[in-house]
Amino acid sequence: MVKRLMEIATAALILVLAFSAPAYAALQPGGPSANGNTNINSTLSYNEVIKILEDIESSSKGQVEVSTLDQYGKSEQGRSIYVAKVGTGPQKIWIQAQIHGNEKLVTEAALQLLKTYAKSGDKDVEKVLEEATLYFIPMYNPDGAEMNIRHTKLADSGKLIDLNRDWTLNGFEAKESEVVYAYWADVKPDFAIDLHHQGLKQVYGTNESTSFSLGISLAPDGPTLPGTGYNDITKQMMAYVYDDLKDYGYTHIDRYQVWIDREKGTAYDIDIKGGVVSAMMMGLNYKSLNPENHSHPAVFFETKGNSTDGSLGQKSNGYLTKQNYLALKSLVHGYVTGEVEKVNPEDWYNIPYYPLAGYMTDYNGIVPVGPDSGY
Ligand SMILES: [Zn+2]
GO molecular function terms here (predicted)? Predict the structure, then answer.
């Protein structure tokens, strides 16, 4: 019975904490505070995002192509999902933001990067645009964004769906998942980055509030990732970003982990198969839209704060957006130029992290750390 209760509690915690740790927001001193009244007017609405995309497209001299995914469908509340395409090279890079509607600054970071690519001029940017084509989805969840909630809401039942748990073989519940998945299966990217916000936490062994966490949704050297073939490349990507950004002002970067126990000094890595970037790495074939099981490495970034729990202060928005922008730009450039592949995968362990208590999974509760896991 106790074990069963533990399992239930664990499952609930996974749902609450994975890709987001708002439960810790109240526990951490010293973070930015908006006294619970985050001003979401300082972030972009759906209509503002569309306007910015159109402005970028029209001033880009044909470099940026903005379109909707309407041919695949619309959101539950009937909104179009937008994509912007830039670059002419063969490597396809997928950047998605705001799959969680209350995680807002990431959209701005994605749009800023798109603007940089639209302007060009700079050598590094030219190189990226020659070698790659980038697909930006700056607002994956427009309904959640407009409601300022994490989820989308099913039109027929009113049920709330976390779009980052909906890419499963059991079937997609929300229209947004069907739309974006079908587009993904057509594009067949080579690499993806997913942008999120998290609650407040501290870098292990310090009193520094984490400003940015680097995440891989199937734990490196864990139960699932080595079997995908992307164990080394995802670790190299994150080590590359860490090295590039760790000395940038005001950033305190660590590994994305959940269920941090500061007394014991331990935490859990996530190993979640229903997350979008996990499904990409596992080559999910849903409704026979991906019959060759196309797959690719994919990682995610977590920026401090979200607009629901009031942990996002206007003062800090500028630098939080900037570090996200810089990390994105750095990783895209490192990937395109092949610099990422020169990194020692074991440098992943240079990124600060709490000693591992186990893996939080969405398929088998908590999985203990194995003897060969390297921890
Ligand atoms: Zn999120």
Answer: metallocarboxypeptidase activity; zinc ion binding
